[in-house]
Amino acid sequence: MHKLGRSNRDKVQQFMAITGASEKVALQALKASDWHLEGAFDVFYSQPHIRTYTDTRHLEELYHRYKDSYADMILVDGITLLCNDLQVDPQDIVMLVLSWHMKAATMCEFSKQEFLSGLQGLGIDSLEKFRERIQYMRSELKDDQKFREIYNFAFGWAKEKGQKSLALDTAIGMWQLLFAEKQWPLVDHWCQFLQARHNKAISRDTWSQLLEFARTVGPTLSNYDAEGAWPYLIDEFVEYLNENNIVQKSHMEDPAR
After folding, report:
1. Which residue among 3, 111, 130, 244 is least packed, with the fewest CB closer than 10 Å?
2. CA 184 to CA 127: how far, in whole Å?
3. What is the pLDDT of residues 128-159, one digit of tens each?
4. pTM to 2 decimals?
5. CA nearest neighbour of 122 among 184, 182, 44, 199
6. Residue 111: beta bridge partners?
7. Closest CA to 167 of 107, 213, 89, 111
C-alpha cells in the first residue's frame, strides 16, 4: 500500500473499516471501481461470497432480540430498540434504505423472512457489522438508480395496508425526507401547494412522476413543457408557482439531479 497516493491510501483504510475486508480485497474492489469508494462498496456487496459471511445462528439471535413478545415479527418497539442499538434516529432516512434492502411490505414492521433475508444480503450477522454497514447504506442514496428504486419503494412501504393511495401528510413527510437528499429547491412549495389546493391522498402515478419532474425540470421551469404528459396535479403546481410569482424567486440552478 506504500506505493499508493495519500488519497487512495485513505480510501483503502476507510473501505476496510466499513466492510471489515482485508487490504487485498479492498484494493481489488477499489481498482475495479476506478477508485470510487461508493462503486467499490457496490462491487464488494454484490459478490456472492458476502452471503457466506453471515452466520444463521447469529442472525436468529439478532431477530429474537428485536422480535415482538406476542407476534412472530418485529414491530415498533423492536425497531425502536434496533435504532437505539445502532445509534440511529428512527426518522433517519437510512432506516428507509434498510427497509428497501429487506423488501419490507409495511413501515415500522419487519417479518422474520424480510429481516433475515435483508441482513443476509447485506452480510450482517452482528450489531458490529450492522453499525459498519450504515455508512454504506447512506452512500447508496447518492446513486441515481438506487435512489429511484428507494423512492419508488417508499410509496408502497409508507401507505396504509389495503389502501391504493398514500395519505397526504405521510407523502409530505416522505418527500421532505427524500428530497433533503436530492435537494430539490421546490419541495417546500410543492408541499405547501398540496396542502392549500389538493388536500387529498397521493396516487402512485403522481408519486413516481414527481421524481421525474424534479430530476428533469429546472427550478425556474425554463424547460417545462406544458404539452408534456405530466399528471394534472403537477401541471396545476406549475400554474400555482406562476400565479404566486414563486418561480422568479427560485435560485438560478441547473435542473435537479
Report:
1. 3
2. 34
3. 999 988 988 998 898 889 999 999 999 999 99
4. 0.77
5. 44
6. 73
7. 107
Residue located via cell numbers 393511495: 165
Quote the cell numbers at residue 160: 396504509
Nine cell digits for residue 105: 411490505
The cell numbers describing 56, all together, are 444463521
- Please give the grid coordinates belonging to residue 116: 433475515
- Which of 3-7, 57-61, 164-168, 182-186 is the least confident region? 3-7
Q: How confident is the model at residue 32 (pLDDT cuts 50, 70, 90)?
A: confident
Q: How far apart are CA 61 and CA 125, in angstroms?
A: 9
CB-based contact 93:180 (threshold 8 Å): yes
